[in-house]
Amino acid sequence: MGHHGWRGNPPGTEREARRRIVEAATACIDRVGLAKTSLSDVATEAGVTRQTVYRYFPSLADILSAVALDRVEEFAGRMERHLATFGDAAEVAVESVVFGVRVVPDEPYLGLLLKAGEADVFTVAVTSSRSFALGARILRNVPVDWAAVGVTTDEDFEGLAEMLMRLFLSFLQYPSTPAHTDEQLRALVRRWIGPALTARP
Q: Average pLDDT of the chain?
């Protein structure tokens, strides 16, 4: 592929090159923290020039987004396990919003873009079709009777996931003043989302 550098071991594909840059960025963040990580640091860690990094990622924000998405599966597993402790569809929906609002900002990697002041990039990532599909998968795997509330098709699950993720995003980026407690947030979401997920006769 004509790559320069890479510590003498050039990647065989573009996907592999991107993966190595993401791994280099993760190593930098782990070592010195987000605030002190620059695109030059990432390039040095990967053994390439800044120009090579730019070939795959237009900006540091794009790299941070890739780092966050690289760790999203672990987060999804934890969320799924948490939601599995609730017994009905409405409570699963409520808790998915509360979990996202409370946990994401303190996540070592998922909260990167928010901490970096890249809220717009974070918003694009959360409202992507990939994110909605992941949300749908999480909901589908939670052992509640979705059919009883009319959620049966892939389109249903993705639509519900999109609504919940947009709600989570709104509460996260534009918190109330004063900020809701967990119980207040639960009550608010339960009051207005719960009826849509009540078992149908």
A: 90
Residue 195 has a CB neighbour count (10 Å cut-off) of: 9
Tell me the CATH number at 40.
1.10.10.60
List Cα–Cα distances, 36 to 4, 53, 92, in angstroms: 26, 18, 38
- Render pLDDT for 78-129 as a digit per residue (tens, 0 to 9): 999 999 999 999 999 999 999 999 998 887 777 766 676 666 767 777 788 8
| Domain range enclosing 87 | 61-196
On the 0-12 / 13-18 / 19+ scale of CB atoms within 10 A, 70 is: middle
The reply to whether 38 and 91 lie within a common domain is no
* Tokens matching residue 198: 């009540």
